[in-house]
Amino acid sequence: TGELASVIQEIMGYPYPQSEIAYWKSENKTVWILEGRGRSSMITAGFVVRDGKLEKAEVLVYRGSRGEQVRSRSFTRQFEGASLTEDRRLDRRIDGITGATISVNALHNLARLALVLTTFIP
Q1: Which among 6, 9, 41, 71 is most buried, taking Cβ atoms within 10 Å?
Q2: pLDDT in tens, 9-51
Q3: Are 38 and 105 in contact (CB under 8 A)?
Q4: Distance between CA 25 and CA 11 in Å, rounded?
Q5: Strand stretches in 4-112, DSSP E
């Protein structure tokens, strides 16, 4: 609700599909399980954030018929070490995959969301 809901909608481009978001926290590390819209169905991805940087990104469930290349380790490895700029953008460019633009954008936004959400929890 409130400011967080507005920030989430700004990042994702639509209201988040769930009213609650699962996460785990231990000291300076959080783990997020997030959902984002792919071309025709939802993508479930997990993110580990440590000290404000992405430690790991992984596609947990890919339900679409196209764009599944985002599951590859060579793609998700690009997110490792990424952090946010002052305007809540990733501090690096993520290379796209031909034919998987919507899925790439979904993972990019979910990575941003995991980093932003970390700043909202005590």
Answers
A1: 71
A2: 999 999 988 888 989 999 999 999 999 999 889 999 999 999 9
A3: no
A4: 22
A5: 23-26, 29-37, 42-50, 53-62
Q: Compute the distance between CA of residue 15 and CA of residue 26 in angstroms, rounded to an integer.
A: 28
Distance CA 30, CA 48 (A): 6
CA atoms of 35 and 18, how far apart (whole Å): 8
Q: Are 7 and 116 in contact (CB under 8 A)?
A: yes
E strand residue ranges, the chain: 23-26, 29-37, 42-50, 53-62
pTM: 0.94
62, 51 in Cβ contact below 8 A? Answer: no
Q: Which region holds residue 110: left if phi is over 0, alpha if psi is between -120 and 50, else beta?
A: alpha
Spatial distance between the Cα atoms of 117 and 48, rounded to a whole number of angstroms: 12
Residue 75's CB is within 10 A of a number of other CB atoms, namely 20
For 3-30, b/e burial (b = at least 16 CB within 10 A) is eeeebbeebbeeebeeeeeebeeeeeeb
